Amino acid sequence: MEDKKANIIATITILTLLLVIIAARVYLKLSKTFYLLAGVDVSLILAVFCFLAIRNRYNREKKLLESRYISEGRELRIEYSFLRKVAGVPTKFKLDDLEEATDGFRIQIGKGGSGSVFKGVLKDGSQVAVKRIEGEEKGEREFRSEVAAIASVQHKNLVRLYGYSSVNRYRFLVYEYIPNSSLDVWIFPGRGGSRRLGGCLTWDQRYQVAIDVAKALSYLHNDCRSKILHLDVKPENILLDEDYRAVVTDFGLSKLVARDESRVVTEIRGTCGYLAPEWLLEHGISEKSDVYSYGIVLLEMIGGRRSISRVENKNKKNGKKKKKLEYFPRIVMEKMRERRVMEIVDQRLIEAKEVNDEGQVMKLVYVALWCIQEKAKNRPDMAMVIEMLEGRVHVNEPPDSKLVVVDLLAAAGGDDDDDVDVTTGVRRVVEIPRLHIQRERHFRFPSVCSSLVSPVSPR
Ligand SMILES: Nc1ncnc2c1ncn2[C@@H]1O[C@H](COP(=O)(O)OP(=O)(O)OP(=O)(O)O)[C@@H](O)[C@H]1O
């Protein structure tokens, strides 16, 4: 606009000058010198005029290019954020966005070892669970491993990480919201607590959850660019969606391992009751350590009880009550030896007459016992577990097994009753100073037909 004005002014000025010169020539009869000076003036004015014209043209083209870049940049940005969403690449959120989404961190939906989890809604309407990681050094480590592990994974049975935020000492992880809480409130009686959530999963739902979790772990172990060891498989870290299908979460303790690395040595991490014996007995851990924890979770789903629990015993002689630890896998083995498999099953399911297929119960128990074999190499991998659960291969009876009880309750804080979470009987540990290992006597199934250590045989 300003350029146009300048052009008009320049044109008017030149015309006026010309008119003035001609008028002067006619009326004042001026000399040749005057014409010479006037000519120079006009040339100068013409030069200015040309300069203005060229500058105008240059500005116009510059503006055109700029606006093209802006619109192309906007398109690129839209495309980029679309691709991020499609590819599941996590977004970096601002703290303000998260405060707004969670209404100032108002609705707490969970609390774990590394922080609290809040419900929220993003601007685009998607429901999210925002985990606020608390604690300095440990929190940072868990934050990094969680983002690194989960950012690259895409599986319907693994929780999706929408984004994260790291501002000063505040660290947040933003997940898709999974509405039916975690598996523990659906298999252990009285776990819903003040949240009044949970109930009793049916047998079929439990069996489906077993398959879902096996698929999630098999994907982590076999189908990602690096092998991902979860290292904290337990009911609290298995969420249930609106159809009670399992979604594995909490990668805070996970470890990325190169494909060609069969074992890794790392500090003890995990949760009491779910730790595989090789954490202490062998050199390093592997994906088979997840298989072990998975086996324990299977037994807990079958029995509707924790693998380690405290029971009160009355002394027959003096009538005094005494608390003692009960190890459910040992009870399961004894029941299997006596061929009383249905006595292992959650009594609520038996009372509701929900379990009719004893063969299926037997299969699930066998798979669980294969998974908790003392020696990691004797356990099946997760891909094989899926084959067994989906009935594509026959499951052999597990062989003789030394049952290694890693007495982590004692290790984590002594035998002091006050020091243990009596509702769960378990405690999360990341670093354990000393460990008590107790080897159970050999357990022998009634009809071990083969010395071959293999969980399956061709159908
Ligand atoms: N995406 C989610 N959707 C709904 N609820 C969730 C979600 N993530 C976590 N929760 C709830 O919060 C609880 C704690 O979450 P999480 O286990 O991830 O925390 P944590 O601090 O890492 O715990 P842990 O002690 O197992 O490490 C879960 O048991 C669950 O009830």
UniProtKB/TrEMBL annotation:
TM spans (from-to)? 7-28, 34-54
Entries under InterPro entries matching the protein: G-type_lectin_kinases/EP1-like (IPR051343), Kinase-like_dom_sf (IPR011009), Prot_kinase_dom (IPR000719), Protein_kinase_ATP_BS (IPR017441), Ser/Thr_kinase_AS (IPR008271)
Please name the SUPFAM superfamilies in this protein's record: Protein kinase-like (PK-like)
For the ligand (ATP), the binding residues are K131
SMART domains in the record: S_TKc
Q: Which UniProt keywords apply?
A: ATP-binding, Kinase, Membrane, Nucleotide-binding, Serine/threonine-protein kinase, Signal, Transferase, Transmembrane, Transmembrane helix
A GO molecular function annotation here is:
protein serine/threonine kinase activity
Q: Superkingdom, according to UniProt?
A: Eukaryota
Query: Pfam families, from UniProt?
Result: Pkinase
| Residue ranges annotated for the Protein kinase domain, each copy included | 103-393
Nucleotide-binding keyword on record? yes
Which family, according to UniProt? Belongs to the protein kinase superfamily.
Q: Which PANTHER family match?
A: G-TYPE LECTIN S-RECEPTOR-LIKE SERINE/THREONINE-PROTEIN KINASE SD2-5, RECEPTOR-LIKE SERINE_THREONINE-PROTEIN KINASE
| Protein name, entry field | Probable receptor-like protein kinase At5g20050
Organism this protein belongs to: Raphanus sativus (Radish)
